[in-house]
């Protein structure tokens, strides 16, 4: 099995250097915003893992890190909004400030579920940092307090985001102008 089977026709949308610079800027903004507060940064699995690791290393505060996982039903390239919690955070967050970190907000349905879940746990505040956002696809309004990049209605892969569970390990973000290759 070779990488090129999956990267055939893939165009770079956001290069490695652009991602690095944006992580630095977001990390500084988050540090400034949460100075003196008890911040828990919660990553949304699985797609967030490279962004999460790069971002938190630019936050100059004694944050706690945790992760949440959900499964959602739908096609390979879109979520249905029917979301189920598959792995929960491991520590109490009542009266804490929560920052949910996500790879991409598409329809916003997953994020709405995560926001509601965190509010039910008694957080003092819940804000969102998302590397990517596709505003033209939104079904429910979502305020992204710390946005990375806005992208058009493309199915994107790389830097955590998958095509059939592959390509999460790419260092850049790409899209397929002719559509993604067939998966067996
Ligand atoms: P939403 O609930 O906002 O529609 O979808 C959020 C989740 O769908 C993201 O966390 C991501 O896992 C997945 N997703 C949405 N758009 C894309 C995309 O363009 N590429 C990939 N690989 N996953 C996406």
Give the structure's gist in a few sentences:
The chain has 184 residues and is α/β, with parallel strands linked by helices.
Your description of this structure?
Helix 2 crosses helix 3 (49-56). The chain has helices at 4-7, 16-33, 49-56, 109-120; strands at residues 11-14, 39-45, 64-75, 78-87, 97-105, 125-133, 146-150, 156-157, 173-175. It has a single domain, classed as Rossmann fold, CATH 3.40.50. It is globular, with a radius of gyration of 16 Å. It is of the alpha/beta class and 184 residues long. The strands form two sheets. A six-stranded mixed beta sheet has the order 4-3-2-5-6-7, with helices on both faces. The chain has a three-stranded antiparallel beta sheet with strand order 1-9-8. Residues 47, 79, 102-111, 155-157, 161-162 line the site of guanosine-5'-monophosphate (5GP).
List the helices and strands and how they pair.
Elements: H1 4-7, E1 11-14, H2 16-33, E2 39-45, H3 49-56, E3 64-75, E4 78-87, E5 97-105, H4 109-120, E6 125-133, E7 146-150, E8 156-157, E9 173-175
Parallel strand pairs: 2-3, 2-5, 5-6, 6-7
Antiparallel strand pairs: 1-9, 3-4, 8-9
Helix pairs in contact: 2-3
Short key terms for the protein model shown above:
6-stranded mixed β-sheet, 23% helix, Rossmann fold, 9 strands, 3-stranded antiparallel β-sheet, binds guanosine-5'-monophosphate, alpha/beta, 184 residues
Radius of gyration: 16 Å
Low-confidence stretches: none
Q: What CATH architecture do you see?
A: 3-Layer(aba) Sandwich
Q: Structural class of the secondary structure composition?
A: alpha/beta
Question: What would you call the shape?
Answer: globular
Q: Estimate the helix proportion, in percent.
A: 10-25%
With strands numbered from the N-terminus, the spatial order across the biggest sheet is 4-3-2-5-6-7
The tally of domains stands at: 1
- Looking at the structure, the CATH topology is Rossmann fold
Largest sheet: 6 strands, mixed
N→C terminal distance: 12 Å
Give average pLDDT, whole number: 93
SSE string: HEHEHEEEHEEEE
Bound compounds, each kind once, are: guanosine-5'-monophosphate
Work out the strand percent.
25-35%
Give the beta-strand count: 9
Which class in CATH terms?
Alpha Beta
Helical element count? 4
């Amino acid at each position: 099995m070779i990488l090129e089977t999956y990267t055939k026709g893939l165009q770079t949308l956001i290069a490695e250097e652009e991602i690095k610079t944006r992580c630095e800027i977001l990390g500084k903004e988050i540090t400034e915003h949460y100075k003196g507060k008890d911040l828990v940064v919660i990553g949304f699995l699985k797609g967030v893992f490279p962004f999460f690791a790069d971002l938190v290393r630019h936050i100059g505060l004694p944050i706690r890190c945790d992760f949440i996982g959900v499964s959602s039903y739908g096609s390979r390239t879109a979520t249905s909004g029917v979301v189920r919690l598959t792995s929960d955070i491991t520590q109490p967050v009542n009266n804490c400030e929560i920052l949910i970190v996500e790879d991409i907000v598409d329809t916003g349905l997953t994020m709405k579920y995560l926001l509601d879940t965190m509010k039910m746990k008694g957080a003092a505040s819940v804000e969102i940092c998302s590397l990517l956002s596709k505003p033209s696809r939104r079904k429910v309004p979502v305020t992204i307090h710390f946005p990375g990049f806005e992208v058009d209605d493309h199915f994107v892969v790389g830097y955590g985001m998958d095509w059939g569970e592959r390509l999460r390990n790419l260092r850049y973000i790409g899209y397929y102008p002719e559509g993604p290759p067939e998966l067996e």
